[in-house]
Design brief:
The protein contains one helix and nine strands, in the order αβββββββββ. The termini are far apart. About 3% of the residues have low confidence.
Length: 183
């Protein structure tokens, strides 16, 4: 749990934008990921994007964010929560990332992202937390009424599980999503 404590002030600091100066957004993503682990590759298609416990995937599914007044700078969080319980077994997965995006224009424009976060996976009271970090490039199409935008993003992420003998997971992904602008 101590690994997650630094996220509270980091998230509060990043999301501390005045509400009148921000365009708040919320939206899901559909995705295609290529996971590489121990020389093996796995392809996962998700709609909406979410955590995939079977293949060790750590991919968030809901995006909450805030753009500045000019729609150039965005701070956003991707997160996913999943619980499976049945046949005497309980599995859980919680992922969260905090990201920054810079758009190269005020309307429809390409953008770049960078972020970091964590994934907590567990079964029957035991759990492990992996740290994540990544970079991405994308484009957004701002709808004419400015009530939302459609985005396409390619991303490379790396998840580093705890333990000296645990293998890092490389994730190359493609996302298509819609963001509803709330003000």
């Amino acid at each position: 749990m101590s690994r997650m404590r630094w996220w509270v002030p980091a998230a509060a600091l990043c999301l501390a934008l005045p509400s009148h100066a921000a365009t708040w957004s919320i939206g899901p993503s559909m995705g295609f990921d290529l996971y590489t682990l121990r020389g093996q590759s796995y392809i996962i298609v998700t709609a909406p994007s979410g955590t995939d416990v079977l293949f060790g995937g750590y991919r968030p599914g809901l995006r909450l964010g805030a753009w500045d007044q000019n729609l150039r700078h965005q701070v956003f969080s991707d997160f996913d929560v999943m619980t499976y319980s049945g046949s005497g077994l309980t599995l859980h997965a919680l992922t969260a990332t905090i990201n920054y995006a810079y758009a190269f224009g005020e309307g429809s424009a390409p953008y770049v992202t960078a972020g970091l976060g964590f994934a907590n996976l567990g079964a029957d009271g035991n759990s492990d937390t992996a740290t994540m970090y990544g970079l991405g490039v994308g484009g957004r199409h701002l709808l004419s009424h400015r009530g939302g935008s459609i985005r396409v993003e390619a991303r490379f992420d790396r998840a580093n599980p705890p333990g000296a003998f645990a293998e890092p997971v490389n994730i190359l992904g493609m996302r298509v999503g819609f963001d509803l602008h709330l003000n």
